[in-house]
Specification:
Blueprint lengths: L2 E4 L3 H12 L5 E5 L7 H4 L3 E2 L13 H9 L1 H12 L10 E5 L2 H16 L5 E4 H7 L9 E5 L3 E2 L2 H14 L3 E5 L3 E7 L2 E7 L2 E4 L2 E4 L19 E11 L8 E3 L4 E4 L4 E5 L13 H14 L7 E20 L5 E7 L3 H18 L1
Parallel strand pairs: 1-2, 1-12, 2-8, 4-14, 12-18
Antiparallel strand pairs: 3-7, 4-6, 5-6, 9-10, 10-11, 13-16, 13-17, 14-15, 15-16, 17-18
C-alpha cells in the first residue's frame, strides 16, 4: 500500500511515524519548504489540555487529557530514537484574573473542571503569587492547573524529522509544491505536482493553513483558514519566571533556561507573514501586565506564523474516498499531534 502525506509539519511527521509503527513501508512525505518550517515550529508549545477547555468544548476533555498524559512517554521515545530532548516539562499553568468579574469566571471554570474529575484549583491572589512569585501584585485570583506542561516546538520538529528520516519505508521529499489532488472516478489516487503526478492508494492532507488551497479537496470539507500569530522571545538572566502564565490577552511561557516565550496575536491577515509594530507592542504590554519583572529582560527573536483554523479539527477519513485529513487544529496542534497521527494512521490502514 502506497501512502502519500502532504506536509512535513508536526501532523505530517506524526502521521508518518504512526503509519510506520503499524507496518506501513511505502510512505511518501511531501513538503514544499523544509520539514517543520511553518506553524509547527513557530508555536509556543503549551500543552494546555485544561487551559483550552470550557463547557462549550466538554466533548474534548477526554481527548485533551489523554494527549497531555501521553506526552512524557512520546518525548522519551523520541529521545531514545533520535537522541534529541524535545523540552518536555511539567511546569503547571496559572490562568489569572485581574478583576473581580474575571475571578468569578475563573471560579466557575474551576468548579466545572472539578465536576469533570480534572485537577484544578482556584486560588486567591496571594495563593497565585505563592506559586509564581513574579506575578503582578494586582492579580485577584487564578486557576491553577498543576499538570499542564510544555515542549519546545522547534526541537520537537527536529526530533520528529530525525525519527522520520531513520524509519525504513518513509521517504521525505522537500521543495516540492503540491498543486492539487489526483482524482479519478470519484476517488483520490494521489497528488499532482508541478513536474508530474504521485500515485497513492491513500493520501493524507496535513498541509496546515494551506490545506484548503489545493484543487480537488471536496467542497464538503470545512475550509481551513490561516490565523496569524506573532510571538516575541525574551531572555532573562538568571531565569526567574517558572510557571506558564495565561491572561485574557496573552501568555508567558518560561522555558527554564532564561528564554521566555510571549504571545500571541490572533489576526485574520491572510498569508501575510509580517511581525508588526502593533503586534509586538501588544504582546509586550500584555506580558509585562502579567509578569512585570520581564521589563528588564532582553528582547530576543520575533516571529509569526499561521494557525490552521477550522470549526473543529479535521481528522480521519474525508468525504472523498482515498483522502484522509489531519489539519485544522488551530491552537492545539502540538498537543494533539500524536493522537491525530495515530487516529489517521488507523483510518488509513483499515479503510
Amino acid at each position: 500500500m502506497r501512502i502519500c502525506v502532504i506536509g512535513a509539519g508536526v501532523m505530517g511527521c506524526a502521521t508518518a511515524l504512526a503509519l510506520s509503527d503499524r507496518g506501513a513501508r511505502d510512505v511518501a512525505v511531501l513538503e514544499r519548504a523544509v520539514p517543520g518550517a511553518e506553524a509547527s515550529s513557530a508555536a509556543a508549545g503549551i500543552l494546555g489540555a485544561q487551559i483550552e477547555l470550557s463547557e462549550a468544548r466538554a466533548e474534548g476533555a477526554a481527548l485533551f487529557q489523554r494527549a497531555r498524559a501521553r506526552y512524557r512517554e512520546w518525548a522519551e521515545a523520541l529521545r531514545a530514537e533520535t537522541g534529541i530532548d524535545v523540552g518536555y516539562r511539567v511546569t503547571g499553568a496559572l490562568e489569572v484574573a485581574l478583576d473581580a468579574r474575571a475571578a468569578e469566571h475563573l471560579a466557575e471554570r474551576v468548579a466545572w473542571q472539578k465536576r469533570n474529575a480534572l485537577s484544578a484549583a482556584f486560588v486567591d491572589g496571594s495563593g497565585a503569587r505563592a506559586i509564581e512569585p513574579e506575578l503582578v501584585p494586582q492579580v485577584v485570583a487564578a486557576a491553577h492547573y498543576e499538570e499542564e506542561a510544555q515542549v519546545d516546538p522547534p526541537v520537537l520538529l527536529r526530533a520528529l524529522v530525525a525519527a522520520v528520516a531513520r524509519r525504513p519505508g518513509i521517504h521525505v521529499r522537500s521543495g516540492v509544491t503540491v498543486r492539487g489532488l489526483r482524482v479519478e472516478r470519484d476517488r483520490c489516487t494521489g497528488v499532482r505536482l508541478e513536474d508530474g503526478d504521485v500515485e497513492a492508494d491513500a493520501t493524507v492532507l496535513a498541509a496546515g493553513s494551506w490545506s484548503s488551497l489545493l484543487s480537488g479537496v471536496p467542497a464538503t470539507v470545512p475550509e481551513v483558514k490561516p490565523i496569524r500569530g506573532q510571538i516575541v522571545q525574551l531572555d532573562e538572566r538568571p531565569p526567574r519566571v517558572r510557571t506558564i502564565v495565561v491572561g485574557a490577552a496573552g501568555y508567558v511561557v518560561p522555558r527554564g533556561d532564561g528564554r521566555v516565550i510571549c504571545g500571541s496575536t490572533m489576526e485574520h491577515a491572510g498569508f501575510r507573514r509580517e511581525v508588526t509594530a502593533g503586534g509586538v507592542a501588544s504582546i509586550l504590554m500584555n506580558a509585562l501586565a502579567l509578569v512585570p519583572c520581564l521589563e528588564v529582560a532582553q528582547v530576543g527573536p520575533m516571529w509569526s506564523s499561521f494557525r490552521p483554523f477550522a470549526p473543529s479539527p479535521l481528522v480521519g477519513a474525508s468525504p472523498l474516498p482515498g483522502l484522509f485529513l489531519a489539519t485544522g487544529h488551530h491552537r492545539n496542534g502540538i498537543l494533539l499531534a500524536r493522537e491525530t497521527g495515530e487516529r489517521v494512521a488507523e483510518a488509513v490502514l483499515t479503510s
